[in-house]
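Components:
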Amino acid sequence: MTQPYSTVNPSYLADRPRRVLLVPLDPVHDIGLKVIRRALNAAGHQTMLLPPDRTLEEVVRAASEYRPEFTLIGRTVGYGTAELLGRLADMMEAAGLRPATKLVIGGMAVRDGLAAELGFDACFGPGTTPEMVLLYIDGKSPRPLSGTAAGQAPPRRRDLTAGFGYQFRHEAIGELAHTVASQTLSWAAGRTSPGVERAELRRAILDDPAQAGRNRELYLELCDEPVRLAAKEKSAPEHTRYLTAHEESFLSPERAYAAPERSPLSGPEGKPTVFVQYGTGCPLMDAAHIQAVRQWGAGGVVHFDPSWAARTEGLPSGLLSHEHDGTVVTLENLQALRRAAGPDLLWQVRAHRGLNTPETVLLAAVAGADLTKINIAYGSLGAGTEPSRLTVDAYAAMTYAARYGLPFDVVTNEELSGVPAHKAMAGMLATVAMGVALGGRPVLQPLFCYSPEVMLGGQMADNYVDFNAAKVMALRQIIDAPIWPGAPVGFLTQTEDRVQSSVSTALHAALAACLGVEAVTIASADEAYSGGAITAAARLDTLTAAAEAFRFFGQSRIEPTAAATRWASEMVAGVEDVLTRVARVGVLPEAIYAGLLGSPEEGVYPGRAGRGTVKARSR
Amino acid sequence: MKSIGFAGTAKNTGKTTALTAVAGEATRAGLRLALTSIGMDGEAKDNVTGLPKPRVYVPAGALVATAIPFEAGAPPTATPAVLATLELLSVTPFRSPLGPIAIYRVLHPGLTVLAGPLVAAELRLVLDSLRAEGTDLALVDGAVNRLAPLSVVDQMVLSTGAARDESVQVILDEARALAFLFNLPGAEDGGRRGGVGWGEGAAPLPVAELPGPAVLTDETAAADLAAFLTAAPPPVSRRRPFRLVFPSLVGARALRALAAYLVESHMAPGEMVFPSAAALAVAGPAPDTVAALLRLKAAGWRVFLSSAVRLSAITTSPYRPTYDHRGRYYLAGHMADAEYASLVDELGRRTGCPVFDVVRSGPAGLFQRLTQV
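Structure:
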């Protein structure tokens, strides 16, 4: 009936003591009820546990004498026992004990429908913990809930950056990163772009609605034709439509959020927080996905925007649904999705590539995001944004992030294009140094993946542990900063087989937990091969699998081989070498064009979106 | 409004099949119909066996009291096109494990799931609400072998059959006993007032009511009753007839002990009032309960029910799921035709109640019987 490993908060006390009769209506088994009884007693309730194998008459007699407010029956259900339990419900009622005593059944084969059929008020099926029973007894929830959060204030959102000082432990790399950062910041500070100017206009519009009209006109002058046209004609941009009033009603504060029925997933000591990505195109569907993953233990969600938006100057407005993947960044969409994320889920809005990054950070902050995502190197590579443009925009984006207190992750997804890990880390660390210099709180997001580098180099020929662990080890040798492997973990290890995909994702998440990182992003079981919409069931697959993996490893550790230590050292040396060469070049955009952070031979090319749009800032 | 409960002696004995048959006939007759259940009915698969279950089809205009109008994860056949469209009328204060119970009106006919009140007190109030909405006929589906919540309906249909037991004798003995209990006479005043007594020309009898809810058990029943009678104030006396009122459950073995005590102590026979047929039927094998009551009757005691529900008809089914122990799954099966025919005949003969198989013979006969009673 219960998971014996579940523990009850020792400080939990019942609102008022209740009388609870526990009945193992089974020839032998009463361990589940014993576990629950211990929790009930500890919480201050009065309990009586009958011995196993009593007759129904004996149970009813005991209930008539003890007069419990709750009678908990434990029973394995098979054919024939339904009649036995139905008869017990009848006898309790005929004896005049109902409804003064709530009749509750628990057992491995028990479900709500069966409980209703048998005449029981509630049921506790597989996965029941003592906490759930305590909450039910205390009337904290109208129905049994899984987890400790029900009926209590939702858990506070974690600050992933708390306790990190951002000192470079590797002095040489620290000096190089600071050099690159200061040179790049000086270069960017004197420049601007349409993206930067739009963000400033947007801020002015939000700050002073009275003057919004003129600023809105100026804003639209800086937008591409589709956005401008949509605003002028008050229509939705191509491939999007406004939500109907009926659809909007589902995004109201009352309907967009339902409190979690279980605690968020994590490994030991509450880490890592598990993030999942959403971006169905429709905020309504996104809200549904967010609701589902919350109930299955996600601690955070990541907003995915459409790829075309990254190549379009300007952001539309309104509650917009997009007919393809990726949910359009508008203030209205973001505000609705913050409501869906509620007070308990960390919510990240990505701004790491594209032509609207400063404004996206601004809108994310206004909408109440907890995190954003900025990376000049990755954002400029692999069909990304033109490096100069992204650097100027990233400067503004980091400034907004610092001003509004939004930590941002710096991801190394360029590894998927073929960039070696040490080069990707060098770009990451240069961006981190820029962010820290601007007062920001970056989070390192190394990729846990089966990258082209290891496919060719054979580092993962034996296992997926060593090379991924080496990345975390290397970064920890370099800097005191939070680490959040992503994004999502297990990239290129998952297949279209949902079991395989879930297992692989879960093991990568478990590795992250064993390495003690702050957060981890996991994919759905069908994310890589969905060929369309990601299904809620596949999302829950990997959350369930991750929960099981966390449970399996607990506080034990995965032991990497000596190769991890060797590769970590090689990565650190490689990062120092790359940053040395970048520092010689001077600023990041030039280094990217020079191929120092990923070359055409390695499969990456500088992005072109926004080319020629950077100009000197007028004094 | 008339309310009819569909009780069964076990799972898979045909309660929902009988209910849907009557619902169909009631619709054709133009009656304003309401449906609910004391369990969960209309779902695609049985909660225990996993075998298909009869679906519940509701006509336009009918009312439904349920916690779950549609089954989560319904199979592909239950597409929106065949699911009923429902309008929420009100939410009752009662809950099932599946959620709060609400009353809906059917806008477009189709399939629904019934999961209504769990206990009699709640069912009574739900029926009151359905009556207030102008219902002519309320049908209450039973659950498993549960009887107690149905003690507030006007009439009862009892379903039994091959799923109850492999032994025809067990099925027959139980059905006969249940028919006996449900056909015990009711006490118009609930049995507690005394004064004019029951039966034409009966003398008023003093009333002795056991404190409730006391559960009499076989070990102590006789001693408890003796002590109670000794302490009872006049005019209750062992030497003259009195009316003994049981407020609660009396187990079969306890009743046997009481019968032995009352008969063997040569107490003047009076009257006994039990809460309901369900209270007698659920506390042990019904045939054992009836045997004890017959012994009391033979000694001159008269037996009444505080709340009587008439058993109007019995339905039968040859359906019998069997468990495959090697494969660990259930298989649908049926009683052999000849054995089943014999069962149907014997049921009618031994219970004195009309017997129907609505699958083989159609629903008209059952509906006619229920509307005539």
